Amino acid sequence: MKYILQLLAYWTLAIGINMQHNQAITESVTAVATKYIEKQLHMRLNIANPGIYEGDPKRLKPWITAMDMYFDFNGETDEQTRITYVLSKIKGKKGDIATNWADAC
Questions:
Q1: Torsional sign, CA 96, 98, 103, 105
Q2: pTM assigned to the model
Q3: Are residues 94 and 64 in the same domain?
Q4: 41 and 61 share one domain
Q5: Is the alpha carbon torsion for 94, 100, 54, 52 positive or negative?
Q6: Cα separation of 87 and 102, whole Å?
Q7: Domains: count for the chain
Q8: Coil, helix or strand for 96?
Q9: Co-location of 67 and 96 in the same domain
Q10: Together in a domain, 28 and 12
């Protein structure tokens, strides 16, 4: 009887370890597969750079939306990097609103 109880204890322990091991393997495979799928999706999609903003007030909101989409798609989360990039994309003539805004920052 003692032998059977020991065997049962080892068997229960082995099943528990095996289940933990299987769960760890499943989580690892899922993480790798998710990254692969995201990379494949990213390779198929191409979000165009929003281009230059030249000060037309009617184009400001769509341009900002396009910039947000561009940053989100490319995984850019650092605010300083975003600001610097956006300012580099603002051009205009001397004295127009885009140039004045970019120069003031």
A1: positive
A2: 0.51
A3: yes
A4: no
A5: positive
A6: 6
A7: 2
A8: coil
A9: yes
A10: yes
